[in-house]
Amino acid sequence: MKKTDICTIENSKIIVNKEVIFESQSKVFSEFAKEAYKSLELNYPKFHKMDNLSKLAFLASEMILKDGDHSKTAIVLANKSSSLDTDFKYQESINSQDNFFPSPAVFVYTLSNICVGEISIRHKMQTENAFFVLDEFDEKFLNDYSEQILESGKAEKVLCGWVELYQESYKAFVYLLTN
Amino acid sequence: MENLQTELKHKIIEVLNLEDVSVEEIKDTDPLFGGGLGLDSIDALELIVLLDKDYGIKLADPKKGKEIFQSIDTMAKFIEENRTK
């Protein structure tokens, strides 16, 4: 199994295969993500509707998947905080009995694997996918799982990795695996 | 009424996170759904929340949304006739 492309996002930087392709002075994730979206000319308006976890996963995957056919690419991602960042935002919208206006657009992101759906929609992928919530990044676990998918013949490539975000703390480490 | 239409355009852009759309680009009679704004079913639910939160209109039958949200004009007319705040 080979690891081909690697994208890392942390500290307001996007690094693809050891090359910094975008860097921002902004320490606020949502601002950094918006600047990256514009600078990298991603041209996908639905990006602005995503929660921060999906934006992080989307940016990392986009750097790897932007070229090529991904109809046979599976997705296996993991993180520690699941969708807690958005869960709290949703809870805030329903805390007050007098001002009770739950947002449907926020609610749909109160599951961690929604970010996998966003990537799949973008690249028209109808392939195997999984999202694990782990205490820490366990590359062997993710690679073993991905290897089973590759050996089953259900996919030719697997987009694999770690997409962790909670408040202003975030890190993505996403890579492509092939046989 | 014209002020309400402009107000609605601002609110829709903000609530639905239409970052790449300007107020000038939304015409009063343009279809809100199935047109250039690319709105989906979740956006329709957000618009129902907007009616409740900002204008005190509770939409008992979500199916009515199809008529109300045809355009900025139809939405403004419905709000004018039914608003409680």
Automatic annotation (TrEMBL), chain B:
Residues 1-83 form the Carrier domain. PROSITE patterns: CARRIER. Pfam families: PP-binding. InterPro entries: ACP-like_sf, PP-bd_ACP. This is Acyl carrier protein.
